[in-house]
Amino acid sequence: MSPETFLRVLGPNPYKVAYVQPSRRPADGRYGENPNRLYKHMQMQVVLKPPPENVQELYLESLGAIGIDLRQHDLKFEEDNWESPTLNAWGVGWQVMLDGLEITQFTYFQQCGGVDLDPISAELTYGLERICAFLQDVDSIYDIVWARDPLNGRVMTYGDVRFADEQQFSVYNFEAADVEIAWQHFNLCESECRALLSQYAAVAKSSKKERERFPILAAYDLCLKCSHLFNILDARGAISVTERVGVIARVRALAVGIARAYVDQQRGDSLADSEPEPATAKKSKDSAKSKDKPQLTPVGS
Amino acid sequence: MADFLLEIGCEEIPARMIDAAEGEFRKHVGDVIERGRLGGGPIESFSTPRRLTVIAKGIQSEQPHEIELLTGPSVSVAYKDGQPTPAAHAFAKKAGVDVSQLQRKATDKGEYLYAEVTKKAGRAADVLGENLPKAINSIYWPKNMYWRKPNEKFVRPVRWMVAMLDGEVISLEFDGVRAGNQSRGHRILADRAVSIPSADTYVAAMADAKVLNREAREYQIRKVLDAATRTLSGARWREDKELLDTVVNLTEFPSAILGNFEREFLALPEEVLVTVMRDHQKYFAVEDSSGKLLPHFLAVLNTDGDATGVIGHGHERVLRARFNDARFFWQTDQKISLLDRVPLLKKVTFQKDLGSYYEKTIRVQCAASWLSEIVRQNEIAIRPGIVHKAAYMAKADLTTELVKEFTELQGIVGGLYTRAQEIDSYLPEATRLAIGDAIYDHYKPESIDDSSPRSIEGAVLSIADKADSIAGMFALGLQPTGSKDPFALRRQANGVVKAISDYKLPFLLSDLMRDARARYQESDAEKKFSADDKFNESTRAFFRERLEFFLRDIKGFSYDVVNAVLAAGDDDVVDALRRAEAVKNVATMPEFQAIGAACKRIRNILRQGVEKGITTTEKFRLRPESASEEKALATFMESTVPEVETLRAQKKYSDALLALSGARGPVDAFFDKVMVMVEDEKVRANRLALLQTLLQQFSTIADFSEIVADGKES
Q: Is the pTM of this model over 0.95?
């Protein structure tokens, strides 16, 4: 999951972003032989934080914008909730079905990196290969016209561009990847990520400036590498049953640590710089009591 | 009198939740009306994926006046020298009346003041506006979500509300949305605000905006499915209640198209084709008059037809891709035979603490073989070789692409592959097919309503597999609690009970559990297991509940018969069933009503004996001082017991009970004339022994003291 989604949905700051992201799932590779399955596919991700009230209508308008006249089609929002155990993230939403084809995953994120989100973000994931195949009315993803030469009309297909990628990475992921080395990579990335997180814990108490320039983005990069290496090892059949749960937990621990650190980094002032603000937003019965003894919320606990 | 309408407009509510939510919503609004003393006529409701609506016609527009009596201070405090004191004034002020209007009444504690107060009648609009948010909030959803913190939480975001009392909008707010008189039409066909002038025009206004109520949608879907199928001679759509409910709740204005797929896909097993159509695409299958699948499907649309044919083309393309996938998976899977896949199960987790499916396979195979041997020893026909082989391969399909894609086809795919593949060259065809059938069926019965496996071999495998799961989870302390049963252990246990009953298998439930637990010996899992006695106790109680449910709700025995029968033994399903039949047959006979009372009495006497530490002789012996009624009962027992024991051994429980029914006369006479707890120790011990023998004869069949007298039977 891109940091534009994973990190930006955290914390209080509003954010809106759209970007294309390749999604790699080694175990889904089919050596380029299956017309509908890919090891790597393209998603357009849209994150709206907080979601506007007309978010569904905006989404439907976006389909109109790429040439889908909804009056000519059958559209349904069918329940489909999303969850990522490695990133400790989940949300509630739908798969959007257009003439029986799932073209988008529409999710209201509820939790990310184990952090309860406030505000909530809406995440729209457009499946680009599917939408293109739909628009171009082709049965195989590989037949999608990627580009047409304006001079001679010669066509480059999706297959021309991506077939080798699919074939060779399937070979790598299923056959060639060196398990021993992949484990070493995994351990290295994990230990560097953990080291960064403990450094941040120290920096968090120092000056605002030090805190703000701390490379949490790099820590997240390392976490993503672990996640991908886990997927390769899994596709390679190198993770035993008993190990599996444990390895997922290791990646999740990184994701949770990063999410907490990121939220901490985003807060206004550091604890060292100013007094903590009393919690005034919530008028609970206990508020009178807690006013007498302002409590520090431990960071990264 | 006024008509009330409330519509909650939402983003698409999950189809599976709508029916229950509509019912709850109607009930909660009804409660608000009733508690608010606004009672009127019946309450109607309406639902679509985007709205829940309640219409209450003829409710009170104002609460009826109600007179309340307020009790005040005692007269002695309220008046001094005939003059009202400040206490009297204060009370009058509180009650809102003049002091002169206060009245007196006598109580046990003396004379007190009281005042009659007319309770202020609330306007219906206020009462509703105030109480409805809580009512809406109390609708149960299996899964909620936030869309704005901290308060806005519902099944999906609420986007509009309509709340009208006759022509007036009432003041109501929920989840940050204020109610008005504007609803919304169908997303595509009537994408606009729809003014609702009043409750009685709602249904018509909605129909105009291409939004139909549930019944109308179901009717319309059936109609269009029939019409579309009629274009093919001899064809019909495959009725499917669950699928119909789903598509009804995925649409606001349904229609349907008949689509086609290439005939060549019919070479794939029907199970695969139907699963793809039904579970993944929500299409109805089309079959000929003999039930054979035809190369067509029916898709229900959420729009008014497909004038250009674009929609049908799209659905056909998606289905073709899905079928292509399935065929690809099928072909890929054949590269490794099911037999060769078994070792691959070492990499498939069964449960994180219970290890892999390979380990499970080995345990289940041993257990199933042991069970087949028990069956064989009981002279029930079984082919242990088939059980053995099927158990070994049963879970191997979990490694296939087809099952990874269509998990609901687990077992079925294993069965299909066994039929299609060569296992061992020496295996006769019929044997291979039998193995395939056992694998195909081994998840059955998946619930108490599902049928058992077609063969006894499949049933034994199914029982061994389920017993292994239940025992493992219980040993880890993961038994179901309350409404939480994440591993569906209750369903699995129901399946065990049903399969045992259907095949009349001679298995003791406690043996099944003890054996299944023991098969985890020396595994990593065992280190996390709870103590033996705790395990035995909890699995026993668990299966007793399942057996109770089975006898009562499925076999239709009354509570008292079930309790009586299970008190005499809850370990042998088949035997319990036979005993229940027998007890049911005799329970209404007057003899047994009397015997029931006598059993209760005997039980009490014996308990007193135990409590007082009184010894009982082992066997009754006729003594010179024995009373004649005692002798008569003893004689009856002596002549009847051997016969009863023979009948019981043959499991002819009805005959045994009939033979015992003769006990009524001697027993009644005995209790009339004979005192059991006499001073003479020897006489007493002897009499207790007699009673004990008698009770034992009955209580090995059922505890008759549980039987409820005529008329009280539930």
A: no
